[in-house]
Design a protein that fits this description.
The chain is mostly helical. It has eleven helices and four strands; from the N terminus they run ααααααααααββββα. Helix 9 packs antiparallel against helix 10.
Amino acid sequence: MTAHLIAFCIGFVLDMIFGDPEWLYHPVRLIGKLISALEKRLLDEHDIAEVKVRCGFMLVAGVIFATGCVSLAILTGAYIIHPYVGIAVESIMTYQLLATKSLRKESMKVYDRLSEDDIEGARQAVSMIVGRDTSVLDKEGIERAAVETVAENLSDGVIAPMLYTAIGGPVLGFVYKAVNTMDSMVGYKNDRYLFFGRCAARLDDMVNLTPARISSALMIAATSILRFGAVLGGRAAYDIYSVHNAIYIYARDRKKHASPNSAHTESVCAGALGIRLAGPAVYFGKTYDKSYLGDALRQIETEDIKRANKLLYATAFVGFGICTAVIGLAIFVI
């Protein structure tokens, strides 16, 4: 447990400092390649719905089994060689599971393009982090998409893998990532994946059910920290981060999404910043009439991308502090 705590802390710090290095091949890419390979073997678009559902279950079972076995073998082998080697490997694996700095880095690319009035460049930058069609987005739509991405991915890109890694080490963390990656690749409600991707989509909903709600609570706590810091510093941010409105909008709008989890952190962010997020969006050439989250107490602006990232970092630190405290308590009790 002590080694796990040390590795957990090192992994978090490495993510905060470096983010995902472009030169290092990320394990999630290997998971993605495995999903693609199995999809080619299992998915026949001419199969009936029941067969597609069964094949989708086989995909999920195969990917989870392979991911769990490989990550367990790597971690166990490292600790067998030497405890210090085990800590080093576990630290790197934990580091690869978190995406705090990378999420900020990619969203700030959108901020930089918008700051230069490069709308086309901003569309290109935001297209790298969202699944919707970005060619139709105006400046406000780009800003909203970037803020939404930071808010939504705070849960499944940072807090959820942090929680699962704290509980079950990198093995459980990578199993979570495998589920999350399957959902992002085959969990669509279109003609191709409606039945084949059903198991992956529902499992993703299940594994994110608790983390999404914990993430929302942590984000509200982070909002209070940022607001308190602004009060002490006498800065204008005092008027931006509203704890009361974050709680109000969360209670009102957290269920206004087809997914049982996606609107939770988005609604907190919308309430905290006093802006309106979500709304109609275009996916694969088709417009989906999604509900708005939050109230437009003011017009969204480019600076809100920075503000959302401050919420991201504050929430990550609050989550990390709680996780390390719980692991430390477990060590003391055991």
